[in-house]
Amino acid sequence: MPTDPPHPRSRLTIEVSASGLFRGINRRRLAAQTRQITRLLGLRSGDLSIHLADDAEMGGLHEQHKGLAGSTDVLTFHFSQTATDPKHLEAEIIIGAEVAQREARRRGRQAGVEALLYVVHGLLHCLGYDDHEPAQARRMHRREDELLSAIGLGSVFHDEA
What we know:
By secondary structure, the protein is α/β, with parallel strands linked by helices. The protein has helices at residues 27-40, 55-66, 97-107, 111-126, 134-150; strands at residues 12-18, 45-53, 74-78, 88-96.
């Protein structure tokens, strides 16, 4: 029985950068929690770049890539085909850090948890999840809750459904 040759990258590299300092969002913690999530998702190799952007930067990227004005919570750029190697990921996730701070205040949770939720959302998009239809959104939110609960942060959508 033929086997696939080992992937040249045997490790998933996670890099977190920021365009500023964002109160309540610790980049090291975000990277460590993201690593826990990627393990739960079975992602074992590749490169994941996470960038925390302020409203001005995020607004420009949102307009450039989606044609929509204003800042947003998350933009995901998936560069690998997980269908051919489901354990490999090449992606960039841009987090609207100021959006995360505002939403965290509004929802009564820590900004770092809100930012991680956006990372998880982006990772699920990379794995084929979608949230354009209500049933798809419920499925995606359930999976986000499962993952966040699995690393000890609890569910975030349990009372928002």
